[in-house]
Amino acid sequence: MNYPFARRINQIPRSFVREILKVTEDPDVISFAGGLPNPLSFPVHEVKKATSKILDEEGKQVLQYSTTEGYAPLRDFIAQRYSAQGLNVDSDDIMITNGSQQCLDLVGKVFLDRDDGVVMERPTYLAAIQAFGLFEPKFHSVPLQEDGVDTDILGKLLSTEDLKLFYAVTSFQNPTGITYSRKIREEVAEILKEHNTILVEDNPYGDIRFMGDDILPIKSLLPDSILFGTFSKIVSPGMRMGWIVAPSEVMDKLITVKQASDLHSNYFTQRVVYQYLRDNNVDEHIQNIRRLYKSQRDQMIESIAEFLPSQVKHTEPEGGMFLWITLPEGMSSLELAEYAMDEKVVFVPGDAFYTEKPEVNTMRLNFSNCCEEDIIEGMRRLGNAMKKMIIDKQLK
Description:
It is built from 12 helices and 14 strands. With 396 residues, the chain is α/β, with parallel strands linked by helices. The strands form 3 sheets. An 8-stranded mixed beta sheet has the order 2-9-8-7-6-3-4-5, with helices on both faces.
């Protein structure tokens, strides 16, 4: 049958990471490709107890339909955590979603018409390109520097283009690991106050700071902005529990589109997550994650210095799950990926993280999902792949 697919679906590429992850089904492959939390951090025993408890005490209720906004005590818990951090958020400003990934889809449905302008970081989160791309916007990009987005370029862009949204991952950015400094956050807020462009601030990694001082989201300076959060990095990604924080006028529209999408997020899982949070000290759990990821991050940086050419540059994240590699000029990370697969190590080439004119000598490495021994061995294999690629180029 000649299926009459929508025009937009043919313009959206399949996820590069999801395709690469198929290779990792081979147990001999070491993967730095996925954005995966470490399973050692999953509170399996505690979640099991929480699940049994709610089924024993309220089994019939927790298996029923629920409200679109999400379980009220869970939203209260999130709001109270924000307040403790210094961010004024009311539970009515929060809606529970199927992971923070659904937030992207809902925001796109509420705000984006075809050819609307969207500003993205350069490079940016590849799944955000996918999610917003379905609505056929015009993407514009602003380069990242060591302390955040280039605010001079952002200001000029917003002054010359009609742009609806600015999407930013401000803490331990995916893919680079870069964090916006307080100064850059203040500058971004001042720029956006002068324009009718809405900040969409994605903060999935904010709790996983293992170096330096915590910095509030830009939303603390821009109350009319939108903020995403998730339990995927601090409890479990498989539960698919995230949330969106938005002003009441925006929330009203988000609720409408979510009702059309899935009625409400998995109520049973909401109840399990809330019971887990009630019965356990999540801050102690987060501290354990921070210690684990810092050790893995440090090992990866040491291994880069040991096994990769000295011309290779990398970011030094203070938290999160990723760092960003810049290869010497003239080297292609896509080409390197082929050599790396022969060595049974995989990563994500940088091309996937750009909306335009990719910097082909860049790549993302995930350090959170490998033990330190695998990090050492994986970087040794990656170093071998680079050496072989360089030798082959010299012979041509």
